[in-house]
Design goal:
Number of domains: 4
Radius of gyration: 25 Å
CATH topology of the largest domain: SH3 type barrels
Number of helices: 11
Largest sheet: 5 strands, antiparallel
Oligomer: single chain
Order of helices and strands: HEHHEEHHHHHEEEEEEHEEHEH
Number of strands: 12
Distance between the termini: 56 Å
Strand order of the largest sheet: 7-6-5-4-8
CATH architecture of the largest domain: Roll
Shape: globular
CATH class of the largest domain: Mainly Beta
Length: 328
């Protein structure tokens, strides 16, 4: 576990206390590989935010314990059968989206939820994924999963505690590894991956980085003061990019038009039906690679009408692709 990952270490302390019933500060320091002074700070921090931690003396030694029914008031919520069933049914979706450090805990929570249902209920609900299924990413190998846990743990620490970091990152645009000093703002999940939104002082701008392409990251002791950022990440992109929106118009052929009409591609979209059965889709989004690759995925069934610069880009991509298939 990363040495300075405060949030993950504190989460580990809670889990160790829950599993062991009671532990000394020395026990916790040994298990998390930090000093007893750090453990005392962690316990104070956890108590201050409301976790039911307390100490008691046995045989002259002070032990720390976690109230096993820390969330006992949850029993008073009175989940209805429909709510309980909906939570159980959402298991596949939630497990697909759970960040790696918390994946096993999510699975354990759903196992306990399953125990609250009768065997007949579980049998019925287990049939639902046959008609509604979520597809997650391919499982990673043990070494790769461990490296990902460490990256995410450090990023969580940096984000929650406003710590600067130095990151080595493989840039697709330059096809080489680069080093950045960053101020991490937010971790974001988008279908297909986890992304980091960070301010880069060298360029004086917010940039988006794929967590998978972070080769290493080390945290600084100094803090930064974050500025306000939009609540909605990538609001003007079909993917995971930032940029000013442009008015885009794309004409789709009649045979693909029903598919285009029925999907919500972006909140800004509107469509206009054409006399021949086709449709013109209008969007206010940024012109990024995600938009261009999406347009290209329709092949000859889509044609950019506005703006002219985007139409030229798509035409150039098609011509370049065609040239690769030229018969010699």
């Amino acid at each position: 576990m990363p040495r300075n990952a405060e949030v993950i270490r504190q989460w580990t302390i809670l889990r160790e206390l829950e599993a062991s019933r009671r532990l000394t500060i020395d026990d916790l320091a040994k298990r998390t590989e930090v000093t007893t002074r750090t453990i005392r700070r962690d316990l104070e921090a956890l108590q201050s935010v409301g976790f039911a931690l307390f100490d008691e003396v046995h045989d002259g030694k002070k032990y720390w314990k976690l109230e096993t029914r820390a969330f006992k008031h949850l029993d008073d919520t009175g989940f209805t059968l429909a709510e309980l069933s909906a939570l159980y049914f959402s298991r596949t979706l939630v497990e697909c989206l759970a960040a790696t450090p918390f994946k096993s805990d999510v699975a354990s929570a759903f196992d306990k939820l399953a125990a609250a249902l009768t065997p007949g209920m579980r049998q019925f609900l287990d049939r639902l994924p046959l008609v509604f299924q979520a597809k997650g990413t391919a499982p990673r190998g043990a070494a790769e999963a461990k490296a990902e846990r460490e990256r995410i743990a450090k990023l969580l620490d940096a984000t929650l505690n406003n710590r600067r970091a130095t990151m080595k990152y493989f840039s697709m645009s330059s096809a080489r590894e680069k080093e950045y000093v960053i101020e991490p703002y937010r971790l974001l999940y988008s279908p297909g991956g986890l992304y980091l939104l960070a301010f880069v002082p060298e360029y004086e701008e917010l940039r988006t980085f794929s967590v998978d392409r972070i080769r290493s990251i080390s945290l600084h002791e100094d803090r930064f003061t974050p500025t306000e950022i939009p609540d909605a990440a990538f609001a003007h992109s079909l993917g995971v990019n930032e940029g000013p929106p442009e008015h885009i118009e794309i004409a789709f052929e009649p045979r693909i038009a029903p598919y285009v009409r029925e999907r919500m591609w972006h909140p800004s979209q509107t469509h206009t039906d054409r006399p021949d059965g086709g449709v013109i889709l209008s969007l206010d989004v940024c012109n990024d690679w995600t938009l261009r690759s999406w347009i290209l995925s329709f092949g000859q069934l889509a044609r950019v009408m506005e703006p002219p610069a985007l139409a030229a880009q798509i035409k150039d991509e098609i011509e370049r692709a065609g040239a690769r298939y030229a018969v010699e």
